[in-house]
Recover the amino acids of this structure.
């Protein structure tokens, strides 16, 4: 049984991590993630129920690749109030159940 994130299926969690890293590193810092990559990043974000809950009444405007406070690149959601919310794909994948 594969692991599923959005429309993508992965044979192993390591494959899912590798794909997330590819998406992360294919975009320059401080740029918007667009197209199919943005759809995938949105699917990753939506699996982080704690981050979705943190939105409250705000909405996600776009996803970006920015430098995290730990000096590593990461995914960030720009919110409708102009703030940014970072999220870890590693936390998503570590708890990812196998698809039925």
């Amino acid at each position: 049984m594969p692991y599923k994130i959005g429309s993508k299926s992965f044979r192993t969690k390591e494959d899912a991590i590798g794909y997330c890293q590819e998406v992360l590193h294919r975009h320059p810092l401080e740029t918007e993630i667009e197209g199919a990559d943005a759809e995938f990043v949105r699917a990753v974000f939506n699996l982080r129920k704690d981050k979705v809950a943190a939105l409250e009444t705000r909405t996600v405007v776009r996803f970006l690749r920015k430098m995290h406070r730990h000096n590593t690149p990461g995914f960030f959601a720009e919110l409708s109030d102009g703030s940014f919310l970072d999220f870890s794909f590693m936390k998503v994948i570590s708890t990812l159940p196998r698809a039925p």
About this structure: The chain is about 40% helix and 30% strand. The CA atoms of residues 48 and 92 lie 6 Å apart.
